[in-house]
């Protein structure tokens, strides 16, 4: 049936929805509370056979656009679409539906629409308005629940209730049902995953299939391969952001229209294919899933992943979402009302948290997203949530907003709950003294819940554990971990630290004992058995590991959407070539194929270009024409194309696309060391069996280092469990090897006597070692346990 024949505008239902919101705005004592209630009615929502639509339109209020020039635009493809193909030209029917205006809001209600589901593509929609010259303008739905062609295109009406009804983890959720909302606390540990580089498929569906395979192998008690072990032993999986990100600055757009009339149009549709590390968001569409990550184009894939994790045999795995509301990329200006923004910042745009409607809509986006089935939420860059206080003429941290984020009540499969919350907050970052002055406890100390967590000082961005004296230099921070680290995320490998590590100059004081090459050094620094032992057997908090680090794969600042600053970004990232790519890796045919096609046939040729580019970016103050001219003038001539502004941009795009492919962990899995993978897996199981290790050090606990230093840093740790069990660790963090040292004869108070068992040995120490003198080298560690006496 044609779209115009099945669409019925229900004026009474639209008016009733507007009246209901009017009553809320009139009678609710506080404006923000009213806006929160109204936000529940915004977006496109399916209720039985009715589709309701609500939009916040303050810009149209500013422009004095009359109600008669504002319509709900509905679109349906004349021919069937396939969201799994790269390109298709599809004719659409179009119908304009009236709206009911309520000041800065408008509402509509329609019968006969086809909602999207797992097995069908629904009708698309947007709000449109006509200016005084008859030109049409489109407003996208920031609260859309399906965006098959990204945040800069019309949304798909989606049947969220049907998606929730079909979820496969209802029993998991029903176990938490009760009269009061269930409150999730911290897991034992976390595996951080970037979906596009975690599997060969690079989608949420591919990751789900991988966990299904792991679940089957665990259920059947099959032998664990190294590639299995790096995913196992974790109580929670934290995904890097899965929200829609930026699009190509200069195109191509994923939705391009032609042959447009009021009733018909043809759309050139491209399957979204941007590459991004996840943090370049536009805020619009935060309630749904980035279509790049959806193999089928259906947001149900995220529910499927939650279900597989929650149904994992032996013990459920929790799902944690990483949300980014502290800033928007400048492209957000294209997707949202200008009223969302409070001015530019180093990332793009600040958000206007003090606007009650903006504040409410942002929180509603978060609520809808977490309802996909997340047990926990990690808030990126909480120190960036700020507002201008005109009375004091200063920027202040919006801690009330952070509290509101943690207070949101979720509902999945009929169970009401509140997720566990983690905040990344390094305030007073970006002040120059932030590394010294940050307490990493600003949110913990202000929030009402006692289980709120922050990233700890060893987890925040600027950590370089491959530089000599790093561990002794960070000793004062480690002492803080002992005393107040119970509510910190611990560990040194995450998306930020690994990226920062690849940006360090190799000319610095590198710990060459970690490996024979820079690649080996970097890999071992972030997958270091001694560091893992420190994190899991000694320090309080909740350990987190980054999958790319555990797989000894590569990582970096990955995004291919930039046009204006793409060359500059590559110049900043170029040093990573020295850390992550050797001649052999470059020579493999499927690696760096785009750069090779541009003329960089060998790593040495690319490396020479990467030496010139950063220097020229700096000396020319990023003048692309000057950079191209100077690159062409080198003697001997540089490899690559003849350099122009356009070919420089081609090289930058090729670099990003090639690095994205290179960072996929499937390339490093065959080279995993089974001994290392078995050790780290056993270490995680050791921690899981002793949840008390998460607590701060008690009066009987000990932490220190062997003195005199004599060119090395060897930590000692003694923990006491509530049942009387003792855990004693000796950890060689860096420096030259020790002479024969007997760990249990170091004179550490509490280690006297017998009954100790050596329960964990890092690679390089034989299974036959039980106790007694031993020579410890860089990255070696031993863990002893003694049962209650």
What does this structure look like?
By secondary structure, this protein is an alpha/beta fold. It folds into 4 domains: 163 residues, Immunoglobulin-like (Sandwich), CATH 2.60.40; 292 residues, Glycosidases (TIM Barrel, Alpha-Beta Barrel), CATH 3.20.20.80; 97 residues, no CATH class; 89 residues, Immunoglobulin-like (Sandwich), CATH 2.60.40. The chain has 29 helices and 32 strands. The strands form 7 sheets. It has an 8-stranded parallel β-barrel. Strands 4, 5, 8, 9, 10, 14 and 15 form a 7-stranded antiparallel beta sheet that branches. The radius of gyration is 28 Å and the shape is globular. This is Alpha-amylase. It comes from Thalassococcus profundi. Pfam families: GHL5.
């Amino acid at each position: 049936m044609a779209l115009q024949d099945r669409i019925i505008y229900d004026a009474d239902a639209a008016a009733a929805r507007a009246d209901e919101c009017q009553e809320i705005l009139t009678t609710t004592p506080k404006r923000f509370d009213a806006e929160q209630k109204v936000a529940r009615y915004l977006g496109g929502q399916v209720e039985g056979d009715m589709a309701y639509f609500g939009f916040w339109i303050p810009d149209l209020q500013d422009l004095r656009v009359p109600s008669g020039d504002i319509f709900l635009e509905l679109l349906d493809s004349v021919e069937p679409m396939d969201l799994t193909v790269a390109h298709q030209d599809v004719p659409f029917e179009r119908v304009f539906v009236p709206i009911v205006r309520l000041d800065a809001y408008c509402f509509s209600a329609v019968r006969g629409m086809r909602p999207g589901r797992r097995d069908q593509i629904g009708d698309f929609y947007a709000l449109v308005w006509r200016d005084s010259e008859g030109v049409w303008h489109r407003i996208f739905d920031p609260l859309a629940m399906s965006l098959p062609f990204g945040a800069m295109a019309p949304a798909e009406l989606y049947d969220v209730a049907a998606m929730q009804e079909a979820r496969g983890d209802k029993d998991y959720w029903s176990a938490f049902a009760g009269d009061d909302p269930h409150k999730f606390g911290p897991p034992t540990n976390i595996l951080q995953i970037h979906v596009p580089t975690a599997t060969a498929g690079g989608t949420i569906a591919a990751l789900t299939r991988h966990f299904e395979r792991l679940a089957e192998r665990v259920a059947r008690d099959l032998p664990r391969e190294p590639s299995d072990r790096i995913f196992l032993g974790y109580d929670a999986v934290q995904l890097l952001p899965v929200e829609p990100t930026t699009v190509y600055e200069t195109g191509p757009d994923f939705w391009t229209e032609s042959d447009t009339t009021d009733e018909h149009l043809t759309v050139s549709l491209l399957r979204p294919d941007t590459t991004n590390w996840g943090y370049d968001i536009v805020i619009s569409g935060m309630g749904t899933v980035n279509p790049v990550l959806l193999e089928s184009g259906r947001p149900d894939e995220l529910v499927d992943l939650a279900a597989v994790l929650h149904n994992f045999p032996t013990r459920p795995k929790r799902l944690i979402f990483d949300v980014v509301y502290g800033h928007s990329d400048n492209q957000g200006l294209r997707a949202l009302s200008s009223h969302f923004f409070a001015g530019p910042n180093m990332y793009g745009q600040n958000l206007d948290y003090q606007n009650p409607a903006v504040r409410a809509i942002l929180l509603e986006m978060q609520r809808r997203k977490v309802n996909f089935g997340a047990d926990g939420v990690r808030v990126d860059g909480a120190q960036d949530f700020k507002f201008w206080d005109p009375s004091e003429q200063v920027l202040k941290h919006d801690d009330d907003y952070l509290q509101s984020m943690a207070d949101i009540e979720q509902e999945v499969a009929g169970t009401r709950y509140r997720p566990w919350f983690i905040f990344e907050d390094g305030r007073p970052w970006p002040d120059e003294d932030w590394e010294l002055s940050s307490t990493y406890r600003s949110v913990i100390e202000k929030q009402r819940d006692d289980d709120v967590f922050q990233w700890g000082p060893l987890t925040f961005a600027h950590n370089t554990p491959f530089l000599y004296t790093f561990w002794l230099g960070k000793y004062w921070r480690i002492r803080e971990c002992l005393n107040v680290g119970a509510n910190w995320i611990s560990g040194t490998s995450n998306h930020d630290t690994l990226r920062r590590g690849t940006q360090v100059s190799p000319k610095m004081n590198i710990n060459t004992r970690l490996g024979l090459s820079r690649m080996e050094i970097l890999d071992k620094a972030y997958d270091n058995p001694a560091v893992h032992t420190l994190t899991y057997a000694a320090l309080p908090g909740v350990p987190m590991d980054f999958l790319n680090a555990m797989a000894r794969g590569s990582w970096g600042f990955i995004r291919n959407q930039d046009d204006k600053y793409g060359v500059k970004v590559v110049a900043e990232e170029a040093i990573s070539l020295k850390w992550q790519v050797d001649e052999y890796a470059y020579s493999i045919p499927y690696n760096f194929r785009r750069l090779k096609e541009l003329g960089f046939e060998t790593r040495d040729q690319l490396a020479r270009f990467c030496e010139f580019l950063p220097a020229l970016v700096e000396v020319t103050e990023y003048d692309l024409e000057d950079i191209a001219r100077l690159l062409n003038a080198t003697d001997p001539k540089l490899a690559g194309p003849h350099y122009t502004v356009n070919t420089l941009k081609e090289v930058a795009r090729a670099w990003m696309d090639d690095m994205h492919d290179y960072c996929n962990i499937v390339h490093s899995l065959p080279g995993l060391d089974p001994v290392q993978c078995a050790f780290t897996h056993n270490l995680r199981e050791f921690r899981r069996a002793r949840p008390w290790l998460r607590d701060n050090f008690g009066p009987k606990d000990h932490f220190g280092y062997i003195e005199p230093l004599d060119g090395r840093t060897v930590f000692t740790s003694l923990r006491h469990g509530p049942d009387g069990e003792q855990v004693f660790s000796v950890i060689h963090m860096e420096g030259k090897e020790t002479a024969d040292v007997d760990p249990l004869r170091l004179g550490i108070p509490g280690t006297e006597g017998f009954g100790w068992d050596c329960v964990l040995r890092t690679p390089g120490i034989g299974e036959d070692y039980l106790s007694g003198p031993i020579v410890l080298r860089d990255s070696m560690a031993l863990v002893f346990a003694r049962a209650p006496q």
